[in-house]
Amino acid sequence: MSSDISLEYLSTLEARVSDLLDPQNRNQITSEIIQLERLTSAPDFWVDNQAAEKLVTELSAKRKFMEEIESIEGGISDLRILWQLAQEAGDARELEAVTMELTKLGSRLDKLHVNRMLSGEHDSRSAVMAIRSGAGGDDATDFAEILMRMYLRYAELNGIKTSVLETSQAEGAGIKSTSIKFDGPFGYGKLSVESGTHRLVRMSPFNSAGKRQTSFAAVEVVPLIESSDEIEIPESDIRVDVFRSSGPGGQNVNTTDSAVRITHLPTGTVVTCQNEKSQLQNKIEAMRVLQSRLLEIRRKEEDAQKKQLAGDVKASWGEQMRSYVLAPYRMVKDLRTNHEENNPDDVFNGKLDGFISAGIKWRAQQNR
């Protein structure tokens, strides 16, 4: 990059920062941060832990965005001064150093631009990823475990908390499947572009003949949908009927209206309880059962929504979205975005930013 190009690139970066955060947006985000800080400092803020954690996450994301923008702005300003001094002194080495720092700032700005594309309904949520082996025998189960390590390493490199929810070991090498929770802002927005069928081509370590083997693994990513352990039921949503208990029981059976039937009007769910001696006890127990049933209905609806969001991901020929080739050449290529890298070891060690950024841009273009 020549000195003239460096100066032009400086101006380009300044324009991109202005495009990303104009004065109006800056004032809006600053006001939002101030408001969130007021909310989080309230004495009763942690009464509702789930709501509180969401606000803390939102505040942290906005702060990090502003801090990064201000850091980039400061870097551009400093580099402009250093460029001018180096130009006046004819210091080629210093001009080269400025150019290298400009490239780094450009990469950071690219990442911010990509993150601003994460505006989908569920993008800001944490994510749950499922990996399952496909066609390819031991090579496929081994590949599934390689992908598991790759995504855990990606999370480690990017400061994302993870929890392995379950893992099914294969009879031979590797794993049949695993489920991982990625707990962090925009976990779903970023990792959702990894959904699809992944293909590995290599000289098989499980083949005595040493032949090249192709194997597959499927990756599904869904947003982590919050649900509380308890469910509130408005009185207006239920109808309570009392009647005399039937069958064997204590002295109150068939003599008082102690049995309780509760109907949940929105869903038509009916719960009856007549085991307790008093109407009040039966009503309390019936409400507990109703809450449990409604919570299960909610979970089933969430599962259906997750499946719809994940789509039907197959793990076989003709469905792959990314190829990891280790033989006869070495390359990882995304077949949707055409983004490719020539060091598979780096990719398997979690360096996925290039693929994820390209995937987010590709998705944004598809949704236009």
What does this structure look like?
This protein has 368 residues and is of the alpha+beta class. It folds into three domains: 3-116, Release factor (Methane Monooxygenase Hydroxylase, Chain G, domain 1, Up-down Bundle), CATH 1.20.58.410; 127-227 and 310-366, Alpha-Beta Plaits (2-Layer Sandwich), CATH 3.30.70.1660; 235-305, Double Stranded RNA Binding Domain. It is 49% helix and 20% strand. It has nine helices and eleven strands. It has helices at 3-20, 23-40, 49-89, 92-116, 137-157, 187-191, 279-310, 344-348, 353-366; strands at 127-133, 161-169, 175-183, 196-203, 212-223, 238-243, 259-264, 269-273, 320-325, 331-334, 340-341. It has an eight-stranded mixed β-sheet, sandwiched between helices. A three-stranded antiparallel β-sheet has the order 6-7-8, with helices on one face. A hairpin with a 4-residue loop joins strand 7 and strand 8. It is flat and about 100 Å long. The two termini are 34 Å apart. Residues 247-254 have low confidence and may be disordered.
Features:
flat, Double Stranded RNA Binding Domain, eight-stranded mixed β-sheet, about 50% helix, single chain, 11 strands, three-stranded antiparallel β-sheet, 9 helices, Methane Monooxygenase Hydroxylase, Chain G, domain 1, alpha+beta, 3 domains, Alpha-Beta Plaits, about 375 residues
Brief summary of the model shown:
This protein has helices spanning 3-20, 23-40, 49-89, 92-116, 137-157, 187-191, 279-310, 344-348, 353-366; strands at 127-133, 161-169, 175-183, 196-203, 212-223, 238-243, 259-264, 269-273, 320-325, 331-334, 340-341.
